[in-house]
Amino acid sequence: MRACIALAIVLFSASLHAADAPQQIVERFYTAYIAAKPAGLPDGEDLERLKPFLSDRLYASIVDALKYRDEMTKRHPDEKPPFVDGDHFTSVFEGPRSFKVLRTEGENVRVRFTDAPDVTWEDVIVVKDGRIDDVIYGGAGEFNPSGRLSDRLKYRDEEAAVTVTVSPQPAYVSADASGQSLSVDLLVENHTQEPLDLDEVHMSVYDRADKLVLRRFIDGNGTRPSIRTADVREVPAGATALVFNPFHDFAPEVDLHTVRFDLKLSSKDGSRRHTASAAVKPEVYRGKARLILPIAGRMIVYDGHDFLAHHRRWDYTIPGLRQLGFRTNFMRYSYDFVPVDESGNSFAGAEEKNESWFGFGQPVRAVADGTVAAVVDTNPDDRKFDPASIVSGGTMKVWGNYVVLDHGQGEFSVYGHIRQGSSRVKAGQQVRRGDAVAAIGASGSSMFPHLHYELQTAAGTDAEGLPSLFEDFDRILGSKRVTVKSGRVNSGDIVQARK
Question: How far is residue 88's CA from residue 137's CA, in Å, rounded to a whole number?
Fold first, then answer.
């Protein structure tokens, strides 16, 4: 049977010449091509029999692609190399069973292909000087995007085209009786010479028995697709983009033993698709120091570290921030605490005056025993911050005035924006949990009087943020109070320490 097919191809090839109309060229090629139905790119005898139909340029591109296929087979013998399966002369992976030429557009020929009665699609075949020079894929659904055969043949090393890394490591889970959160970043590196669109992000959770627990994703499906919730939609050529993990909150019973991320990206015309994957084994963070809230009175967590909080959305890959010396998200688990009255108001009178704010000047206390690692309280409470000051003064300038406590075992508390001249401690001094250390101010990058507090791995901004649980406080829910022995707080919570 195969000999008969080969003979048919030879006969068609012999009758082919440049004077034939583009439609005839296409009809003869696809009749022979569908009869041969090569798996992947045609090679060996199949390619030689089809060669008379192909332009010199297209034939050379196929030969180069096959050489690359063979090279990858030797380099990665246990993995499937490129170009070994699927149909490459039409849009659809499975390939056609029949075709019909619809019309000729100059030297281009539009063809309708059919695989099954309900599976049809259209592609445009480019004919130059009596030979097929390219195929313009019309696209046939999500997994069969548009593009060109010539571009597909240029593809090299898809595995290295895009890589993704989960940061930070170790990846900590913040957990209490109410639930869990995983605050990690996906660093997506584009190693190609073209910008790539982020099309899909999939997350899969596996338990300790390596069984699938749940799977979530964002993609391009729907009229207002979920992929739009990712604020980074394009990774520039040769660059790295930070994607905030969009799947961050989990029920308390979910076993987050292994979390795997699978990303899909594509070129602007959709002809080149890339995938990248990374897995992480998160750890529930067990704090060493037992923490109390840093302010005694009623307050609101004006901004915490949930997915929408500005602390969480600190993109340390932005060139400007990197030039200033920022390399991590030291604010990953930060809080902006703002004292409020029983109606939830934070000030009375002129908002621009610090003295109108109920919290301005209120005492700030040590959340746990520790040693004072650093103190600065000479900057004015003017709510002004010049980023250029970081160049000469260091990245801690972002806080204006601050106190840093070392609790030992790799845990440090940072109190930012404290009031000028309010420090009650000095470097090297020992403090006890509950001791007053300073007062709420509005120095540095503060927009209004508040306390910025965070637990982190070191004293400076080269640290990573750490999850924190607070003890003995009330969560105020309107007219009701819920006493919490140990738990998390986050954006929008109204809380008050019991001690």
Answer: 9
Give CA separation, 11 vs 4, 7, 37, 129, in Å: 11, 6, 17, 20
Task: Report which of 37, 273, 276 is spatially closest to residue 137, judged by C-alpha positions.
Answer: 273
Q: Using CA atoms, how far apart are residues 340 and 345, in angstroms rounded to an integer?
A: 5
- Residue found under tokens 């507090």: 453
The DSSP symbol for 465 reads B
Long-range contacts of 4-9 (CB under 8 A, 24+ apart): 5/35, 5/36, 6/45, 6/49, 8/32, 8/35, 9/35, 9/36, 9/49, 9/50
Give Cα 51 distance to the centre of its chain: 44
pTM > 0.85: yes or no? no
In the numeric block, which tokens belong to residue 373? 């690692």
**Torsion (CA) 95, 96, 100, 104 in degrees, nearest 10:** 10
For the chain, 499 residues long, give each residue's pLDDT as a single digit of tens: 333 434 343 334 444 444 578 999 999 999 999 998 888 999 999 999 999 999 999 999 999 999 888 888 887 776 778 888 889 999 888 889 999 999 998 889 999 999 877 788 999 999 999 999 999 998 765 556 678 999 888 876 545 689 899 999 999 999 999 999 999 999 999 988 899 999 999 999 999 998 999 999 999 999 999 999 998 999 999 999 999 999 999 999 999 999 999 999 999 999 889 998 899 999 999 999 999 999 999 999 999 999 999 999 999 999 999 888 999 999 999 999 999 999 999 999 999 999 999 999 999 999 999 999 999 999 999 998 888 888 888 999 999 999 999 999 999 999 999 999 999 999 999 999 999 999 999 999 999 999 999 999 999 999 999 999 999 999 999 999 999 999 999 999 999 999 8
The total of other beta-carbon atoms located within 10 Å of residue 274's CB is 22
User: What's the CA gap between 170 and 184, in Å, rounded?
Assistant: 10
- Give the contacts of 247 (CB within 8 A, at least 6 positions apart): 182, 203, 216
Pairing of strands 436-439, 402-408: unpaired
CB-side neighbour CA atoms (13 Å) of 216 = 10
d(CA 110, CA 262): 36
- Tell me how many degrees the CA angle 112-23-89 measures, rounded to the nearest 5: 50
Torsion of CA 437, 439, 443, 444, to 10 degrees: 40
Query: Up-side HSE of residue 158: CA atoms within 13 Å toward CB?
Result: 23
Return the DSSP state at 227: G
8 Å CB contact between 244 and 316: no
